[in-house]
Design a protein that fits this description.
This protein is an all-alpha fold. The protein contains four helices and no strands. It has helices spanning 2-15, 39-53, 59-64, 68-80. Helix 1 (2-15) crosses helix 4 (68-80). The model has no long low-confidence stretch (mean pLDDT 94).
Length: 81
Amino acid sequence: MEKRADTFNRVAELIEPFNKKGVSLSDATTFATDLEWDSLTVMDFVASIEDEFDIIITMNMQAEIENVGQLVDTVISVQDN
């Protein structure tokens, strides 16, 4: 569980520059509704996640990710494969 907490914290740090409204982050925080991100912001953010964790998040994976918790789980899953 420590790995998940560490990953969550790093993802949260990467969200901060994009978190214009200062939304408090949890697993349930949604990108579209809570953070009000448009598609360009999502693309920029995904690029920063990929760079930070040295992974590739496919377009199919991105389509399934709606909240922070799902993103954290995806990062861990991709790293483990």
